[in-house]
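Question thread 4412

I'm putting together a teaching handout and wanted feedback from people who do this every day. The idea is simple: show students a protein as raw sequence, then show them the structure tokens that encode its fold, then repeat with a second protein so they can compare. Below is the first pair exactly as I plan to print it.
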Amino acid sequence: MNIAAVVILYFPDQNAVNNILSYCFHIGKIYVADNSETSSLSIIQSIKSQKPETVYIHDGENKGIAERLNQVCTLA
């Protein structure tokens, strides 16, 4: 499947995981860009356990939505 999705997180909670897991099996790859200053490793591990093709991007900075979308488009 060649469909990819991007999710931009900012201090995510379990609801974010539930939302991502509700559609992750309908797409090929998920790019998760975390704009939080601290990483959300437990969140991403929950997602990767169900969808190993998930790519997690985090550098400890909030660079805004446009910057993250450009970053993910380059990766995809």
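The second pair follows. I'd like the answer to focus on this one:
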Amino acid sequence: MSIALPYSQLAAHYDEFVGLAQFRQVRRIFDHCVRAHGLRFSRAADFGCGTGLLAQYLASHWRALVYA
């Protein structure tokens, strides 16, 4: 049995119960820090990225190369 199958079944529930709320909070704090300190970056790493919500946000909104 591959790891992908059980994880993919869990992913939708993870985002519903934990991931989306956590992502919104981290995104709000991250965006505040970027504005407050004038941060710029072209690459980022997202360790322990769960389903990849923050990694997707960084890649699409900030046009960054993201390692997740």
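Top answer:
Good format. For the second protein you could add a caption like this: Residues 4-37 form the longest helix (34 residues). The mean pLDDT is 88.
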